[in-house]
């Protein structure tokens, strides 16, 4: 049976590139999207060469949609092999720490922290029902104390704090749940859209995430992983 892979935010950027790669490798990809039209477009494109893709509406700000999605996964498949918590927002890359907008900060936490938490929590029974269930959650090099200590601009407080929460969540889930593997990933700066000039190609993030998924040895469990392996945070 094909590996079942759920990718949140899979209609563009790294999420879509991951969906393309997993479909090409023969997996059944559940294309997580908050927007049905964009989701259908992505699913059609992914199926063009005979690949397997299904639409799954998940808006991380709409908890009902997460509950429904989890119910659907259980009814349709009864298990989930891989959850990639890719959906997220990073709206404060040019805002210094003392100038954050409270509403924007709250939105970042709602998506990156609460949304990621809820998807993981609700998909957990199906991940546990898989032979080797795994969760890979997007984080960031910026979410490490060594990066805070470095002489850098003090921008991106929302991204940093929210991704530190993702790192912490990864550890705490792993400490509690022994039959699912939890990892966080820092892909580096990725040129996932034309606006992100000077970044690494999207393929770098895709290869890293696949490497993490294929590395089933326990030494990466509960860890933040980058292209050079475990990143202390
Ligand atoms: N690119 C980088 O250098 C980099 C580095 C470190 C971490 N990351 C993280 O890696 C992930 C993917 O990066 P990317 O560059 O591909 O990001 P992106 O191009 O900004 O795409 C983000 C994805 O998340 C989805 N999303 C946003 N809010 C959502 C919500 N409330 N519910 C469901 N989906 C939502 C978006 O959906 P819509 O299409 O509907 O907007 C989009 O599909 C993000 O979480 C990003 O923060 C990226």
From TrEMBL:
Coiled coil location: none
GO biological process, one term: secondary metabolic process
Top-level taxon in the UniProt lineage: Bacteria
Annotated GO MF terms: oxidoreductase activity
GO cellular component, one term: cytoplasm
InterPro entries associated with the record: Fungal_SecMetab_SDRs, NAD(P)-bd_dom_sf, SDR_fam
Protein name: Short-chain dehydrogenase
UniProt source species: Furfurilactobacillus siliginis
